[in-house]
């Protein structure tokens, strides 16, 4: 194919979830089958890039200074859910599983990858506890060691001065999960996290 | 999410192979995680849209008037492979299965979808036979009724004046295909297309 085609295909392959064939397929769609979509796409990316920015409070994306969730008066101000990424926030929102506010760290502590506290979105977190409104913090971070370390760091250095109740989301067998096929760590988590029935 | 985010997500969902979740994932990547990719992407789409056009001879995409395949002197001028789409051309090229030239019809005849001969890229096809170079035509169209009708139309109205040998690609069991799980039409095709062993 032509160099311009290949250049576009290479770029598309850098997007999450797109491989060689799907990038090729989208190239053909944008250049041959539906060229009108590429104009609309350029316009939408440009507009979004110019207008969308991180919420000053939680880090969620917004077109204003403060995002829809932080602005929403029906959201419980006393509950804060800490997540590592915007995708995790969206997943929890889609599950309608949380009625409080959020804070996105945009990463986990990782000495191996040279990610320290200064690389995370933590600067505004401490200030959120100053007025004493937040009584409950839920760490909705993934089930891995880096997340564990990040939770401990936040609890020890940021939350230690405030009277808040901290919890971690439950670990165990996923919905529809089969015990036969579960890995050892999941099963250990599931047994450690047993509840009264 | 914000309207600009949702607008971009809706547009991305119109691209082939992208669903709700993958479009959301790409939105976040373009707007929050790797904003530098969105600038490069806009540039690449704009450049490709301005510079890539259909080859005047076969319909393949090219940055010149005539594509790399039509220009290539090592390609056999006496053999023409007719395909319905650019993706089919690329698939055959990737399989290194054809050393002749191509012609892309960009569609199949379909009375139900109101697609007639005038909607296909057939205007330049007849002229390609005028100098008598093409001796062999291979119809590499899919295994369905609309393709069958398109082959017959091309053979009866465009190729009838010329002395060319026409053939259709083989139908039957795909590579690695199992007879037990093959559908009835595929098996019938495979038995109809039996060859000496």
Decide which structural class fits the backbone of chain A: alpha/beta
Average pLDDT figure of chain A: 91
- Known CATH architecture of the largest domain in chain A: 3-Layer(aba) Sandwich
Instruction: State the domain count of chain A.
Output: 2
Under CATH, the topology of the largest domain in chain A is which?
Dna Topoisomerase Vi A Subunit, Chain: A, domain 2
Shape of chain A: globular
Question: What is the terminal separation of chain A in angstroms?
Answer: 63 Å
Q: Please tally the β strands of chain A and state the result.
A: 6
Describe the protein in words.
The structure is a homodimer of 197-residue chains. The first copy, chain A, has 197 residues and is of the alpha/beta class. Chain A folds into two domains: 3-51, RecR Domain 1 (Helicase, Ruva Protein, domain 3); 75-168, 3-Layer(aba) Sandwich (Dna Topoisomerase Vi A Subunit, Chain: A, domain 2), CATH 3.40.1360.10. Helices cover 40% and strands 13% of the residues of chain A. Chain A contains seven helices and six strands; from the N terminus they run H-H-H-E-E-H-E-H-E-E-H-E-H. The first copy, chain A, has helices spanning 3-13, 20-33, 35-51, 68-71, 86-94, 145-158, 184-192, and strands at residues 53-54, 61-62, 76-83, 100-104, 136-139, 165-168. In chain A, the strands form two sheets. A four-stranded parallel β-sheet of chain A has the order 4-3-5-6. In chain A, strand 3, helix 5 (86-94) and strand 4 (100-104) form a beta-alpha-beta unit. In chain A, helix 2 (20-33) packs across helix 3. The radius of gyration of chain A is 21 Å and the shape is globular. The relative contact order of chain A is 0.08. The mean pLDDT of chain A is 91. At the A-B interface, helix 1, helix 2, helix 3, strand 2 and helix 5 of A face helix 1, helix 2, helix 3, strand 2 and helix 5 of B.
């Amino acid at each position: 194919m032509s160099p311009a085609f290949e250049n576009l295909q290479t770029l598309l392959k850098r997007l999450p979830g797109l491989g060689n064939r799907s990038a090729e397929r989208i190239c053909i769609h944008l250049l041959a089958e539906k060229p009108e979509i590429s104009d609309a796409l350029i316009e939408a990316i440009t507009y979004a890039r110019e207008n969308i920015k991180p919420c000053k409070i939680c880090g969620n994306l917004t077109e204003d200074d403060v995002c829809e969730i932080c602005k929403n008066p029906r959201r419980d101000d006393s509950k804060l859910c800490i997540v590592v990424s915007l995708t995790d926030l969206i997943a929890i929102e889609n599950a309608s599983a949380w009625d409080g506010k959020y804070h996105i760290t945009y990463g986990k502590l990782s000495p191996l990858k040279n990610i320290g506290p200064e690389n995370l979105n933590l600067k505004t977190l401490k200030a959120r506890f100053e007025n004493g409104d937040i009584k409950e913090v839920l760490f909705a971070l993934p089930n891995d060691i880096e997340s564990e370390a990040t939770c401990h760091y936040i609890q020890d250095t940021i939350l230690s001065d405030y009277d808040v109740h901290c919890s971690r989301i439950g670990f165990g067998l996923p919905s529809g999960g089969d015990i036969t096929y579960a890995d050892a760590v999941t099963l250990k988590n599931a047994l450690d996290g047993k509840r009264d029935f």
